[in-house]
Amino acid sequence: MITMTKDTMEIVREQDVVPFRNRVKELATKIGMSLVNQTKLITAASELVRNMLKYANGGKVTLELISKAGQSGVRLTFTDKGPGIADIQQAMQDGFSTGRSLGLGLPGTRRLVNEFAISSVVGEGTTVTVTHWKNGR
Amino acid sequence: MDTNTTARLLLRKKQDILVNWMENQLADDTLRDDLISNEELNKQSEELLDGLLKAVSHGNFENIYSPEYEQTLDTLGDISITRARQGFSPRETNLYVLSLKQALTDVLEQEHLNDPALLYKEVILINKLLDNLSIATFETYLKGREEVILRQTDELNEISTPVIRVWDGILALPIIGTLDSSRTQIVMENLLQEIVNTGSSIAILDISGVPAVDSLVAQHLIKTVSATRLMGAECIISGIRAEIAQTIVHLGIDLSNIRTKSTLASALQIAFEMLNLQVRKTGQTSVTKLLR
Amino acid sequence: MERIPILKMGPFLLVTIQVDLYDRLALNLENDLITMVSKTGARGVLIDISAVTIVDSFMGRILGNIASMSRIMDAETVVVGMQPAVAITLVELGLTLQGVHTALNVERGMDLLYKKTDVLLDQNQEEEEEAAEQDPE
After folding, report:
1. For the domain bounded by A2-133, which CATH number is listed?
2. Which sequence ranges are marked TM in the entry (chain B) (predicted)?
């Protein structure tokens, strides 16, 4: 796997969400991702950024254009220094939420992207990495 | 051993190598003169050999991913991708590169007949280089084949999900074959886009051509219906055969929120009703007029 | 502060969302709309989202809230013009906007509102009553 471009954005308040989404859209458009796949990726990114703001008062996102086996894609890494998630398995279940939302956050987000990885240490923070390929496969 | 000397020797003997290589290729039983003409083959081979000899002229026989091999790998890539598309078998494609190995070692053998130790080292070197090149060839060959498969899959998906405008405001979408997640995606995209384009408010999803409905397929159907509803159109599923109805119930799939009909005709009927349309035989109206 | 304009069209309220909403703007819209419904006694709310490219779970929740709150005040909500890519993404995310009516475009949405709220009938009755009152003169 090759990383073609890489940059980071700090997300500290909700006003950062829209510019961040636009940045993701730029990347997705650059590799010619179809509209539906773009929308899925941006929505997933939006969900994750919202989680970060809600539970960890913000964090950092790394945006990368990557290429693997002739296929190009966008990879986003969300890193926060929040309270962390005690039971990841539980958090990945449909309908689970500690934050009075619909509980669609993580499992819903996972369905929107091709690859989804999460790791978390209680008291230290959470890292979520999502990858979406150009043709969505 | 000085690799530069070997490189210079090979460069000097270029013509011999080419003739030798061509002979090897033409003598081979598997030569596909039906797919490629001899002149074309000669041109191709000369181009590749030129590039290769230029690459080794720096004395690098080891790392084929260094810059001086770029041109060779490009040519080789082009050749194997073209061959993959033309329908050459993997063996035929690979033999093309491996027959060059024979030609190269033959030349070295003639030159260093009196120095077996040197010859041995050189042959090993050539072997290693050509093996690496043959692996690279094979990789690009496979890539070419994968591209063909991918393109065919796309085409298949494209042609197998037509959206038909059966009436003003009514779309029908016959689904043929298995409904997996990537196809559902295409079905949804096509259907929703067509709903926008035509301003249709009813879509009929006909699944007569779907061999089996398991919980995953049902889930895909439910997703399509939900998406249609979000757009503001209604979705009817038709073509539910007896055995499909049985499996749906046995699997405990809940389709109660979805309008289902056994045939496309009855789905169309209910669509007409929803649009307050009536279909009548023209003859009958005249009879009723007569009766009045 | 930036706000989404709300238009009053007869018995209905019309909102056209032309920008990607950030949270504060969406919450303001929810607030303003409900206040308007109660102030004007509107019977229906029509929200045009044809220019919206991203609807995440937060935005979906706002739409759901508007519909539920309006219903308590006897007003129906119709969301119109959802983009195909947005619809596909919402379904994948697991959000089906229960309780929200949908229509293809503003025109169909208006028709649906008239049908759902029987406003046309009320108006006719009023007109008849007016006509009856005017008759003796």
Report:
1. 3.30.565.10
2. none
- Interchain CB contact of A51 with C (< 8 Å): no
Query: Architecture of domain C6-134 in CATH?
Result: 2-Layer Sandwich (3.30)
> CA-to-CA distance for C96 and C64, rounded, in angstroms?
10
CA distances, B123 to each of A80, A98, B118, C14 (Å): 57, 69, 9, 82
Which chains lie within 8 Å of chain C at 3 or more CB pairs, if any? A, B
Q: Which helix (H) or strand (E) holds A112?
A: helix A105-112
B231/C105 CB distance under 8 A: no
pLDDT tens digits for range A7-51: 999 999 888 888 899 999 999 999 999 899 999 999 999 999 988
Residues in A closer than 8 angstroms to B143, CB to CB, are 70
* Burial of C10: CB neighbours in 10 Å, binned 0-12, 13-18, 19+: middle
Domain ranges, residue B220: 164-280
| B241/B229 Cα distance (integer angstroms) | 24
A103 touches chain C (CB under 8 A): no
The per-residue pLDDT for range B16-58, each reduced to its tens digit, is 888 888 888 888 777 777 777 888 888 888 888 888 888 888 7
ipTM of the complex: 0.82
Candidates B185, B193, B222, B226: best to mutate against A (most CBs of A within 10 A) is B185
Q: How many structural domains comprise chain B?
A: 2
CB of C18 less than 8 A from some CB of A = no
Say if B287 falls within a structural domain.
no
